[in-house]
Write a structure and sequence with these properties.
Rossmann fold, about 800 residues, five-stranded parallel sheet, alpha/beta
Length: about 800
């Protein structure tokens, strides 16, 4: 349509710059359903399409979509990635920065070892200040390696996970997960100082990590209960102990911002002896003293004006009953396990956050989720309160309960409603993870909290009522595709297994199909072909029981790919045959003679095909049986054609040999294709079977001496050595209307399974060629071939079809295939 001249359907709106107005009732109509979030990834040599509706599809990656060799990040990009990986700053007033005390010797030693390219393992108990020391060492080693410093977390991570994390921290490779060989070759070129906090493995796994990264120097931090390096490993060990008494008192003074009183100093000495000088205990004790000072300062204001009466804590009421002038120091037992006392003096939102963290196994949700989980719009400030009291500590890009806090809160009754708290978190994350505005990277950052919620709600799953859906299944169903798209595949596997168990417990078979299919695809990406086949076949069986075709194509294609990679050609042919049957396509016919047929199975929107070779014996399905029948007919026709051609060639060769010896042009009475040519060249001999006999359709290699009348062996001839196999040598008869004899080929009618015919009389192959003098022969009248009515004219046409002597009505019974007709 002309864009200048408006048409009749535009009602004058074409000349206006504004778009036409929508109906006022458009907002009251049904909303557009949310589009399912799909993603395409390159995993090794596979192209993976994450489909949260029908199941992920996997195929061989086309050449134009293969990932190029990833480039390394620039220093500015590495700094930005490291900043994004740090835990968020808690809202609220800034916390006092506590400098590291009595760690200068350990700090200098670690830097010296890393500068020499040595890997170090820093071992210390929980709360000894390992993370703070790692931060300082990382700042000192910023310029030691060409790829800088890489900060990783080893909490619930394997050696393979750390290799992938290191690869993505140094390289710019979105939507690309290299296979194992490619990964090892890429990380082997990285030269960086890698700082790994909260390591959870050692031994052979640690040696594997070090062997794959020869150009990196590692600084590991672990607790004493983690297995150490192997005996031959070149990893230095540095132990981190507690502080002395003076350092503990200094931490308390910095926490409260004043000099301690004599009573407080004595109390700090007792605490140092009980806690063995762990810095975390003094940080928490400093929070107790700070709360004590705040309570002493705020008691009078509450009494005078009553402004904060509704938020007064039980401890404040206790202080009011004692006149509030003096607040006693906590007892030594309370200082050794200060979490319940510290929590009792926090806000309601902070205490609710602690209950939620206890239910999630110590995981503290991101501060952006706390208002929805707790039910308070200002609950995001609770994280700042918990961090200021030393009740939470940073782990990677998130927070967890500090060492020992989980057990202390459980003893105080914070685990009273773990199922209810976990269900609230599961329902929230199920809605949030499936929202279209939430990126897979954000879901992966909250993976530990999501998996912790699944770990609690899955065992409590019960059979769902009609029309109801299990919250555990819904959470696993929405979080698993996000983990896959965000390349957090260890979380992807854990969520899939949790979802499969939850769907089994609630009796939702359709969801079991999805989880088993995804587990098969994941195993296929990891090269575990046996596990992939088992999971995909389980999904196919469940789908067949439900008569559900949703996702059936993706399942068959994945199974065909597994069979092709495993070299199982019949399985590929079967899968391809099923897909072709669904598409109503005719199977191509295979060539005759047993040549393997090439089968193709269409793959995906990219048009990729899987080609496999199918042996002729693997005949499955109706289409394959039709092909087998066509192959048998073709094979029979070919055999008949070979027999005809052999007969014609034999006759031609015989005629040429006889013509050389008989210038008059008559046919010799003893034609044979095995006679010596006279020039010393070997004669043509037929092929024999395993028993030494000539097979069907061959010419006898021994000449037979004719009798005086030109006929062949009668019943009175001496019997030469007989051959056990049937013979079809040419037999000559005396023509009824001509003066010569001609060889007439006769074909044996013996078939497998029928009685063996009478052996043919023939001369052994060692007999000399026939001479001009014919030997004596019995009276021709005794031979049944002398009857003129039973002879065949030598000048008659030779038929290409095989003939049997028993087929002639007037012919007498013959003694064998070599008898005269």
């Amino acid at each position: 349509m002309d864009p200048i001249t408006p048409g009749p359907d535009e009602h004058g709106q074409a000349l206006s710059r504004r778009p036409p107005r929508e109906s006022l009732t458009a907002d009251f109509g049904p909303g557009t359903p949310a589009i399912a979030r799909t993603a395409q990834l390159v995993s090794g040599g596979f192209l993976l399409t994450v489909n949260p509706v029908d199941g992920s599809e996997i195929e061989t990656c086309p050449p134009h979509q293969r990932a190029e060799r990833p480039r390394k990040r620039t220093p500015a990009e590495r700094a930005e990635a490291e900043r994004a990986a740090r835990p968020p700053v808690p809202p609220g007033p800034a916390l006092p920065a506590l400098s590291l005390l009595e760690r200068q010797d350990e700090r200098e030693r670690l830097v010296r070892l890393l500068a020499r390219g040595r890997s170090v393992r820093l071992t210390g108990p929980g709360g000894s200040g390992r993370t703070a020391l790692l931060d300082l060492v990382a700042e000192d080693c910023a310029d030691l390696a060409p790829d800088g410093v890489v900060r990783l977390t080893g909490f619930r991570r394997t050696a393979a996970d750390l290799l992938h994390d290191l690869f993505h921290a140094v390289h710019e490779a979105p939507a690309h997960r290299p296979e194992q060989d490619e990964l090892v070759s890429l990380v082997a070129e990285i030269g960086a100082v890698v700082v790994v906090d909260d390591l959870e493995f050692g031994g052979a796994a640690l040696d594997e990590l070090l062997g794959a990264t020869p150009e990196c120097a590692f600084l590991f931090a672990a607790t004493p209960d983690v297995p150490g390096p192997a005996a031959g490993s070149e990893v230095e060990e540095v132990f981190l102990g507690g502080l002395d008494r003076a350092a503990g008192v200094e931490i308390l003074e910095r926490a409260v911002g004043r000099v301690l009183t004599e009573e407080e100093a004595n109390w700090a000495g007792d605490l140092w002896f009980e806690s063995e000088g762990l810095p975390l205990r003094f940080v928490q004790a400093g929070a107790l003293l700070r709360q004590r000072d705040q309570l002493r300062a705020s008691t009078g204001a509450v009494d005078a004006y009553g402004v904060f009466e509704d938020v007064r804590s039980p401890l404040q009421e206790e202080f009011d009953a004692d006149d509030g002038d003096q607040v006693a120091l906590p007892s030594l037992g309370e200082a050794a396990a200060p979490a319940p006392l510290l929590a009792s003096r926090l806000s309601t939102s902070a205490r609710a956050t602690l209950r939620l963290a206890v239910a999630l196994g110590g995981e503290v949700p991101h501060q952006a989720h706390l208002p929805a989980l707790v039910g308070d719009t200002h609950a995001d400030a609770a994280l700042g309160e918990l961090a200021g009291c030393g009740l939470v500590s940073a782990v990677g890009s998130r927070y967890r309960l500090a060492a020992g806090v989980q057990a202390q809160l459980e003893a105080a009754g914070y685990d009273a409603d773990i199922p209810g708290e976990a269900r609230t978190a599961a329902e929230h994350y199920a809605w949030w993870a499936g929202h279209p505005s939430v990126t897979p990277e954000r879901v992966c950052a909250e993976a530990d909290a999501v998996l912790a919620a699944l770990a609690v709600v899955v065992p409590a799953t019960e059979p769902a009522a009609e029309g109801e859906e299990s919250v555990a299944v819904r959470l696993a169903r929405t979080a698993a595709p996000a983990f896959a798209a965000g390349l957090h595949w260890s979380a992807w596997e854990r969520s899939l297994r949790s979802g499969a168990e939850a769907s089994r417990l609630c009796g939702d078979v359709s969801e079991q199909v999805y989880f088993h299919h995804e587990l098969g695809v994941l195993s296929l990406c990891g090269g575990q072909l046996d596990r992939a086949r088992a999971e995909l076949e389980a999904a196919g069986a469940l789908r067949g029981a439900l008569a559900d075709k949703r996702g059936a194509v993706a399942g068959r294609r994945a199974l065909a790919l597994v069979a092709d990679l495993a070299g199982d050609a019949p399985g590929v042919a079967a899968m391809a045959g099923e897909e072709a049957a669904d598409a109503r396509q005719e199977d191509p016919a295979s060539p005759p003679g047993g040549v393997p047929a090439v089968r193709t199975a269409p793959f995906g929107p990219a048009g990729e095909t899987l080609v496999s070779r199918q042996p002729p014996a693997a005949a499955t399905g109706g289409g394959i049986r039709r092909l087998a029948r066509r192959n048998l007919v073709a094979a029979g026709s070919g055999a008949l054609l070979v027999a005809v051609l052999g007969t014609v060639v034999t006759l031609g060769m015989t005629s040429e040999q006889n013509a050389d010896r008989n210038p008059a042009g008559t046919v010799d009475v003893n034609p044979s294709v095995s006679q010596d040519t006279g020039d010393g060249s070997p004669a043509a001999h037929p092929k024999k079977n395993d028993d030494g006999d000539a097979g069907p359709g061959t010419v006898s290699s021994s000449p037979t001496n004719p009798g005086p009348d030109g006929t062949y062996g009668t019943s009175d001839d001496p019997a030469p050595p007989a051959s056990s196999g049937p013979s079809s040598r040419p037999s000559a008869t005396k023509g009824s209307g001509g003066g010569g004899t001609t060889p007439t080929p006769t074909r044996s009618t013996h078939r497998p399974g029928s009685p063996t015919p009478t052996p043919t009389q023939s001369t052994p192959p060692s007999s000399p060629p026939p001479s001009s003098t014919a030997p004596e022969s019995p009276d021709p009248s005794d031979s049944p071939s002398s009857s003129p009515g039973t002879s065949t004219s030598a000048s008659g046409p030779v038929s290409g079809a095989p003939t049997a002597s028993s087929g002639a009505a007037s012919a007498p019974e013959s003694d064998g295939p070599g008898s005269v007709i």
